[in-house]
Amino acid sequence: MSLPKLTPTYHKDTYPSISSTNPSLTQAGKTILITGGGGGLGFEIARSFAKASASRIIVVGRRAGFLDEALVNLRKEFQGNTTEFIAHQADIASDASITSLWEFLHSQNILVHVLVLNAAHFYPYAPDTLSMNKKDLMEAFDINLGGNFLMSVNFDKQTLRPTGLKLHLVNISTAGVHMHPSPNQNPYAHFEGCIYGVIGKDCR
């Protein structure tokens, strides 16, 4: 069975108009914060922003060792680059951890220009939707919607933000928000739809 397609062409690599090395897309002078930035897609996003000459890239995640390894690899790959790499342990499942993260950034006089919401909670899984445990379901809801909402609020309300300065929020999502190939798909897609419904219109 073939899955429905949102667009006629799916790209698996960049092309000139969206390349990180395109001068019109330079991130020079910008500070980027990426949640879930220690590995996988988050790590590759960090690499792309480094190629775009971002001044500072902050990778955030739950596991300190994982972040430290990412930091070593980024600094090694971009050792000739002027980009500053910072790793900070934080968990979007914890309101206190999120608050502490933004307090730390403020104490270091760091203004974040681009926030990439990449961290997510993909559970629960169940053979069918009605077999899910409510406690697990609500935990995932609180993380994917509540945690990312609180990150967005702190990003928007940064004390160091000059009046009128435009910030950029990037929410890493899934095509499953727009189509439902399976009646019992993981609820992650629905949570992503909630995020757009809550903050999407304010981020245009």
From TrEMBL:
<comment type="similarity">
    <text>Belongs to the short-chain dehydrogenases/reductases (SDR) family.</text>
</comment>
<dbReference type="Pfam" id="PF00106">
    <property type="entry name" value="adh_short"/>
</dbReference>
<dbReference type="InterPro" id="IPR002347">
    <property type="entry name" value="SDR_fam"/>
</dbReference>
<protein>
    <submittedName>
        <fullName>NAD(P)-binding protein</fullName>
    </submittedName>
</protein>
<dbReference type="InterPro" id="IPR036291">
    <property type="entry name" value="NAD(P)-bd_dom_sf"/>
</dbReference>
<dbReference type="GO" id="GO:0016491">
    <property type="term" value="F:oxidoreductase activity"/>
</dbReference>
<keyword id="KW-0560">Oxidoreductase</keyword>
